[in-house]
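Schema walkthrough. Field components (list of strings):
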Amino acid sequence: MNAPKHAFAAMYPELGTGPVSTESAVSKEFFELEREKIFRHQWFSLLKRDSDIPNPGDYFVREIEIVGVSVLVIRGDDNKIRAFHNSCTHRGNRLVHDDMGCTVGMQCDFHGWTFNRQGELAYVTDEEQFYDLDKSELGMPTIHLDIWRGFLFVNFDETPDQTLETAMGDFNQDLSPFAFDDLECIGRYRYEVDANWKTTMNAFQEGYHVALVHKRSAPDAFTGDDNPYCHLPKVKLQDNGNQSLAVPAAPEHKLSPTEELAFKFGSTFTQGVGNTEACPGTWQGEAENWGFDLNIIFPFSRINVGAGWCYVDAFWPVAQDQTVYELAYYFPKPVKPSQMISQEFSKVVLRDLSREDLATNEMTHAALMAGSINKIQLSDQEIAVRHLYKTVTARVAD
Amino acid sequence: MANRLPEEFSDLEGYADWAEPTEAARMARRIGATMAELTDYYSTVLPRMEAIAAYLDQWDLPDLPDTAKRLLYIGMMYMEVAVAVELFKDPDVPESSPVEKLTVLTEHGERALLG
Ligand code: FES
Ligand SMILES: [Fe+2]
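Field assembly_structure (string):
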């Protein structure tokens, strides 16, 4: 596939073609502005689906470092999923210490106040010693939670500027036909990265790096004679910051003996190639030699869809120079043991491949911090990187 | 010593210790092994993978007996090892973020089997 030269710049002339300043990645003040102007108002993808907590009492806890909040998400007896500050309304102690599980309620280990699965204050130890306590007013502090295509999102604004549906509204393609409900989480990973969140995420927003960075994990899956530099067949950039990038697959990809086994026992992450029926909710029908789609939800999370599988990830900003990269794979729920073995192949390859993606970030960040370079050069293939800087800078200036 | 794997797979008994029940443990064993050990495991288990799958598929996942579960972990360990042997030619991932920076979390399927 030979894309016409500079096709994407022609589609998005407002983004320009010049070098981009590194200021927004190296400045601590800029990071504080991002926190105030962007992070505090956004819908955060928790990288979890409603089906990850299927039964009343199922819960998980997540630290959202950027706003300093520990969030408890729990399914109530009424089957409704709610999000709370993971804090006791007596004097503020942390309520739940496990990452996930199933519980009949939350009892504080400081003085024993007890909350039910709906977050209501159910029991106060030695209650007579208090003065006029109104238990109905002292449920766990709530956080806005909403669900999009089965994925859980929270928002820390007192009143969110926009609904989740609006925030995702003109999100790339309409993902509603994608069969997310057939999938189950088969692997989840967290990386600590000593780099700015944008520098980290940039390594995941183009195909230009694939031939070098993934020469071992994917020597021929995404690059071939036809498309040696992994040119993206489709790019869609939105005013709200959302992005959609189709990643190509190479038709000449040769299966190793192990990938052949994985195919025989189930399916793999390269199975989009050569499929005659396009997977609904993806770009497969319109992009030649399609591999999968990256769907980037501004500012830093993604729902990436392949043929019958997906992975979700986020570049959680922690500090100006610190990021947590989290990713989770969702594959068809395995019934037979051989399917589980098959999925282990994709899981391990993609996990190791993500370690390759993170190889360059810290050194890049260090060089930017040192001022070794103060602007970056971006090709037409890296237009999504340009778009991210443009959107962030505009939102911060707002 | 009693067989830890199903009788039909007594030829793999020497690898019973490699039947690690979590991805984190399998990854650690792979990265801690030598290339010679990995290549041995690879060439011993590869020709047995189809038989392993056929044997295990007598059951659905939730019904697997314990010896069969160990065999499942041998099969999953094979995938971990094969990626090192076929792709990286190294127990670890060269030119990558150091493994100390990575936490492998346990997900549903794995938890369900652990019981
Ligand atoms: S802080 Fe929770 S009971 Fe006192
Ligand atoms: Fe990559």
